[in-house]
Design a protein that fits this description.
The chain is an alpha/beta fold.
Length: 768
Amino acid sequence: MSTRQKISSVRTHRHMAQHICLYVIILLTLASSTFGSEKTTLHLWHPMPAPSRAVLNELVAEYESQHPDIQVHLLYKENEEVRMAYMSATGFTEGGPDLLYGPSDFTGALVEMDIVKPLENLFTEEELAAFDPKGLTWYKDHLYQIGDELGNHLALVYNKRLFAEVGLDRPPETLQELVEFGKKLTLDKNDDGIIDQYGLVWNFTEPFFFMPFYASYGGWVMDKDQNPTLDNEAAVKAFKFVRDMRDVHGIIPTECDYDIADSKFNTGTAAMLINGAWSWAKYMESPKVDFGLAVLPINEETGLYPAPMIATKGYYLNPYVKGKRLEQVLDLMKFLTGPEAQFQYASRLATIPTRLEVREHPDIAGNPIIQTSIEQVSRGQAMPISPQMRAIWDAMRPAYQNVLGGSMSPEEGAAYQQRLAEQKVAELFEGQDYDPDAFNITAILVYLAGVILVVWALYKLIVFFLLPLIRGIPGVQVKESRFGVLMVAPAALFIFGVVVYPFFYNLIISFSNMGLTTVNDWRIIGLSQYGKVLTDSQFYHFFIKTIIWTVVNVSFHVFFGVLLALLLNRPLPGKGIIRVLLILPWAVPSYIPALTWRGMFNIDYGAINIILRNVFGLEPISWLIDPTNAFIAAIITNVWLGIPFMMIIALGGLQSIPQELYEAASIDGASPWQQFKKITLPLLKPVMIPAITLGIVWTFNNINVVWLVSNGGQPGDQTHILVSFVYRAAFNLYRYGYAAAFSFMIFLMLALFSVKFMQKTKATETAY
């Protein structure tokens, strides 16, 4: 062996030793953190807003100080996020947190999926008797939730300061007065034709906030048998009442979601607000608000009070917690629902405690806000906790928004929501009537294909991993080859865990009846889910919209990306700064610019309409109210976000083209256009075709922008693309088998397109 080879061998072994030492140090660190810790970590997931989170953090810190051997890990997610995350973690992997905090309407779905533990045998009768019965959530003769807060209800919040400015000294007592007071409090203070202060704001696009008015006309969402009851005179009158408040009386904004309503009231630019108990603490601390609370005013026409839906907020227990850990988790639950904890929440946040002894405390009994809240709760109705409620919400939303958008009359909207609710309730429970004893040739073929796939995977594992590890790679020293395989192994395992396994699991699920009631007992049923996809008219409707979405977006991405790249490839003052500014939309997480653009599209206060009105003298455009305009708004946002990627790819391709080709073409008399056509385009092709393919795939599956800009497909679920539609089917109606088949259809379409597109365009061929 030569001296150079010896030195190389020594260096190789030194690097190997360094890597091995590094791995040993990491493993020892992990082992010491795992086995050396004496504390037990309990996990709690919750959707509490900021004021409640502050109290929870203090309570947990106090509990940890009392129990040095316990550490409580808190994870905050939004209401829908925490529900879906818990279902995924607990329903599919038997994992998830020890405790889940949330509203009682989670109960039905969690019980049907069998991912919450009954509590009646874990608490004594004396312990349960200390709670208001409404604070204990029972379902199918079992107790599943212990509440620490009663209500989760809507009421009328008003700003006493703004009332006094127009000579009003009390809140409205009837719906007629609500309109009259709203007119007095709706002001254009500087006479510029733009309303500066609205009389009333609330999230009137969501059916939960519509429910009190529906109830005031005698309506309710379902009968005693859990059947939808949405097509009636009450629904028609309630639709008209809400629509007239905006379009006839003008006391509410043309466009108003939760964030807009919250911001306007909190900044003193709205006099009244309909919102829930979870939000009041923030308004009480606002310097712009002289906080007042009142019950929702009576409907003189019917003599009925608006009845908001009432729910309990509290704790659910993971069914897989057992042994000593179960005792520790129960102790934590009892502490967080105990008298001291509930007093802290009630005294600081004006919530209604579920413990009767806390309500009798002088500070609580004498609190006018809590007492008004209790009065409002007494006039409300308990929110149904059965899973059908999820389907009903999904049916009411598009009908209600279509009525507000003008595409349906109130009568049409009432009939549509009833028809849609019946359809969605049926979809919610599909698959549970499957006969497991029935002969199914497709199931046999699927299982056989699975066995073949496993054998093939084991063969590949042995040939490409184990044999090189044992024998060594030909032409490479055995020790070095083994080390190389070991270094690749973690990445291979990671790819298998996050890509390969989920892909094939999804494929198997697509042949199953997995749904809400069968998530833990699903069966292979054949091709019926694919049949449902292919016979669903919505699949073709949203497929066409997705094609339009993809073609328009990618066309603009490529056109403007190449155009900007051509400009940046020339000598240009400040080119570095310009390049950085143009890349920023791509560098920032997409949800930030998507929400920013959504704000810019607001009909009254958005920057785009302000420019149209003040600069061009045009009428404001209802970007987010009209379905077509909402879809265009999502496209504009995504075009802005996608241009930088194509620009960077094109710029890299342009800089790789030899300048001698352009010089030779100039000598031959070629015009700039001829140079672009004969030199630039052919040499950009190998770079741009793969980028365009990626852009098509990304855009086809880009749920973020269309979901955030349109606020989940609004108005009326008419701005969906395929991927956002299947997302709603999977996580709103728990149609997991259907969603798996749907998503695999999307995969097949994109895979076939990508292969054919690359072949047709000959992207891998050299341009020389």
